[in-house]
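Researcher: Let's try something more involved. This one mixes different molecule types, so please make sure each is placed in the same coordinate frame as the others.
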Amino acid sequence: MDFWFSEMHTNNVKMSIRVEKQLFSGTSDFQRIDVFESEEFGRFLTSDGSVIFSEKDEFTYDEMIVHVPMAVHPNVRKVLVIGGGDGGVARELSYYEEIEHIDVVEPDEMFVNVCREFFPDNARGLDDPRVVVSNRDGLRFLRGMQDEYDLIINDSTDPLGHTAGLFTKEFYGSCYKALREDGIMVYQHGSPFFDEDEETCRAMHRKAYKSFPISRVYQAHIPTCPSGYWLFGFASKKYHPLKDLDAKRWNARGIKTWYYTTNLHTGSFMLPKYVEDMLEEEEGAEKK
Amino acid sequence: MDIERQKSAPVYEALERFRKQRVVPFDVPGHKRGRGNPELVKLLGEQCVSLDVNSMKPLDNLCHPVSVIYDAEQLAADAFGAAHAYFMVGGTTSAVQSMVLTTCKAGDKIILPRNVHKSVINALVLCGAIPVYVNPDVDTHIGIALGMETAQVQKAMDENPDAVAVFVNNPTYYGICSDLRSIVKLAHERNMLVLVDEAHGTHLYFHENLPVSAMEAGADMAAISMHKSGGSLTQSSLLLLGSTVNTRYVEQIINLTQTTSASYLLLSSLDISRRNLALRGRESFEKVTSMAEYARSEINSIGGYYAYGRELVNGGSIYDFDVTKLSVYTRDMGLTGIEVYDLLRDEYDIQIEFGDIGNILAYISIGDRIQDIERLVGALEDIKRLYSRKSSMLHNAEYITPIVAATPQKAFYSEKKLVPIRETAGMVCGEFVMCYPPGIPILAPGEQITSEIISYILYAKEKGCSMQGPEDPDLEKLNVLI
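Model: All components are placed in one shared frame. Result:
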């Protein structure tokens, strides 16, 4: 049997994964969710036909979006995860004892339930007693919040899909307001490689750069993402992602990782020339 | 409304049958199902260009409908509770002009609210009728024109018993409704017809908790922008008739200015949208209403904004309020509606319907989702955080009763010249002078300029009102009839 899942990365580029079987298909108020079993990537979950994560490469994403800010901020007590209904981010956060409270705000209850059923290793993060899951809209949840969080992680999926509202100026503005005076926000920054995605990537940097005093971008290699290359944004009110990195302290924690190291932390902020140029262009446009 | 019959969509079904027949085209349009214009196919899609066909026997003809278009119009009439309905492909402007041209001949009087849409005045230019204006009330706080008070309409009727028709904007852009039932009763007692510009009221026909619709109130003609809240393609519209109007004459009037090559994209969109409204309209507008009410309460809880709703209703100039409209007063934040409109678009990638001096209007429709509402509310909150400043009160224009010295038609076709504004007293104005707020004309083409009007214009300018309409943007000079 020849059974393939395909996702169009652009109109002219298609990524395909050979599928063993389909485990789930359902449509919520927000998206169509499918779960597949595959030889190469293990189980993977798609939203409206786009891969959200796979068992094989989810660790890269979850580690990079959690450990980078956690190795910089000296005192994280309260964290807000927007999206993150699979629990992978919460799982990584649960390794830090000083964290007292983690809000996971995932509007789609079906997404959470599907992850609990098919991805128990991720979803165990949601069972940590410090985690509170709210099935609410992220922007709505943030509205009116002030000086609440030390860290906000925007782990929502797709800047162009149903979570588009979480990649906007009003979202960054709401996050800024909801963060304490030394707070950090990290977010998915998309992939800069294909022409179609470049403008989205530029716009995200433009908005974050405008909203926060420190705004840097870092990278990771994630095979199921378009072009396999993914960026993250680090927006911060006080701490610099490299100057304030406390490698000694982080390494002393002994957290087991597969992707993240404090060396890689530094390296991940060293970007290819074309990406650096693109970001600087946006910063320049803002200064004018 | 016959729900079983409403399940069919005759124009749409005829197009489907036609597509399957694979007829070889030796007729217009010349792109021949797109083959002659591949770039257009790439932009619009194969399905779309293949439906762009000419009138022909199986598809009927809008100029003289006898089969599928006729059936579709009958269904539309049934869905809207009208005696007749016409599919219009020249926008609601063409429906409004058909109403005026049907009821007025040269020299006839028509009673209108002063803040009537430009298309109505243009219709008067075409037919030579004489406007009799009724002053709409103004809310001085939010700075918008309201509906017509029934007593004011009655006064205009009593003073002009020879008027042939009364024209009503219902609801206004902002959702304000006049007492349509009473106006209809007064007009019919005097043998005047009632024409309703219902461009912003398609949805009124499909939910019992919304203000009364023109047909239900007994109006004689109504222009419906199906492409606004009805979901059809831009430029498609409906003209509805009560049982009092001669359909043959209306058809003649429509055909005076209507294209002989009506687009089947527009016609089928009207047909499908009518079906959708008939079958699912109630449920859709229930959802739209709840989204608008939710947005209103969230925006009002931000503080500094005033998203107004039913509490405005006063039994007179605001006889009812259309709760699907989301208008927000922004001046208390020190920002004009135009500034908020620009910020939303430039900084937040949100396009709203319009911003005026004091208000913004966000159009909520059957295509909206709650997450988009959250974006709008989030953006408004962020705008408050980043851009709000001390508020300043605005001067509101007062109403000066116009003196109609020449018909809009005469004013339009007369020779005109530019004269310094201070020297124009006693002359006849050749153009519009509008003052925002509240967007009601101070002068319209054909009206006599008085020294009172001149000093008022100069005063309003000095107070920072935005003056629009004249050829000279600084309003140093006015166009007058020679």
